[in-house]
């Protein structure tokens, strides 16, 4: 029986849930024994990881740039280490290379047995330090999005899901959503996050994020919004928001950036914003053209099927098996 020690920032971190813990049921059903330790703000768990490492076949380190001395000890005690990441963690928040973070990143990559990167932009960076780098997109359990939810006929609901750190992108386009609503009259914004937003010119339904609530609220909407800025940091994002919308069976309007752009173009699952007023034009277009809406909706659903976690698990299982 294979034994895996999963080290993440912690269960509250979205990357921990989306790229590691989401596979819990599949690991159990495949008779893989695993244990999870969250490292953020839990120094004792670093010691636990060191003590436990020799008894596990694989250490799966997700995203965290752990201290060099810790990783060095972990490397000595571990049989195999897989490093997984889904953000441009070698950059500062302004999108510029951070020498401090890059040193940590390069050391971890160079001394891991396998690297799983969330998109090609990230893969290309990791590949400079370790040729055993594989593209593993962020996937999700699409079965959880297949619930039946009645849509509110009084509104054409636009939905955004995110966090406080990414809410700035939504806030920037709210004036454009207000202008669109001035013409269409029946728009409403569903904001699924830990941030409360207000507007005088478009109704906003603020929903505190929880894992169970998100499925119902996404499914109840008509369009998914994915605004981003055109930066290297955004290019490191893995389009999870886009995949959530697609799994809920709703077309997407997204900034023309990174993996968001690639997926929407490839599957024709929505419309891309190249200039500011496109937000208004695209919402109006999909609101007034039911046939076009249905085409994008169908394409979005087709796209989501290819990013189900079961598809990803098979790919990862083969890569790990070959490496072992």
Automatic annotation (TrEMBL):
A Pfam family annotated for this UniProt entry: Glycos_transf_1
One term of GO molecular function: glycosyltransferase activity
Keyword Transferase applies: yes
Domain Glycosyl transferase family span(s) in chain numbering: 241-302
Entry keyword set: Transferase
Gene3D superfamilies: Glycogen Phosphorylase B
Keyword ATP-binding: no
Highest rank taxon of the organism: Bacteria
Official protein name in the record: Glycosyl transferase, group 1 family protein
Organism: beta proteobacterium KB13
């Amino acid at each position: 029986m294979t034994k895996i020690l999963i080290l993440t920032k912690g269960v509250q971190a979205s990357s921990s849930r989306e790229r590691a813990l989401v596979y819990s049921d599949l690991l159990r059903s495949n008779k893989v024994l695993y244990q999870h330790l969250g490292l953020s703000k839990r120094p004792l768990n670093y010691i636990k990881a060191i003590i436990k490492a020799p008894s596990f076949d694989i250490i799966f380190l997700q995203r965290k740039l752990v201290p060099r001395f810790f990783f060095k000890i972990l490397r000595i005690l571990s049989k195999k280490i897989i490093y997984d990441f889904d953000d441009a963690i070698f950059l500062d928040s302004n999108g510029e290379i951070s020498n401090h973070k890059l040193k940590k990143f390069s050391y971890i990559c160079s001394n891991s047995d396998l690297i799983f990167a969330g998109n090609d932009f990230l893969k290309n960076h990791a590949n400079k330090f370790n040729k055993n780098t594989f593209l593993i997109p962020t996937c999700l359990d699409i079965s959880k999005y297949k619930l039946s939810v009645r849509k509110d006929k009084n509104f054409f609901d636009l939905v955004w899901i995110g966090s406080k750190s990414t809410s700035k992108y939504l806030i920037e386009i709210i004036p454009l959503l207000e202008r669109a609503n001035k013409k269409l009259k029946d728009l409403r914004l569903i904001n699924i996050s830990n941030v409360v937003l207000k507007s005088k010119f478009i109704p906003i339904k603020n929903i505190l994020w929880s894992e169970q609530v998100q499925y119902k609220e996404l499914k109840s909407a008509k369009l998914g919004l994915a605004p981003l800025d055109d930066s290297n940091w955004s290019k490191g994002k893995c389009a999870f928001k886009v995949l959530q919308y697609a799994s809920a069976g709703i077309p997407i309007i997204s900034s023309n950036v990174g993996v968001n752009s690639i997926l929407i173009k490839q599957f024709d699952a929505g419309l891309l914003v190249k200039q500011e007023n496109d937000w208004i034009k695209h919402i109006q277009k999909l609101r007034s053209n039911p046939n076009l809406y249905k085409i994008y909706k169908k394409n979005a659903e087709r796209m989501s099927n290819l990013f189900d976690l079961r598809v990803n698990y098979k790919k990862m299982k083969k890569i790990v098996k070959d490496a072992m």
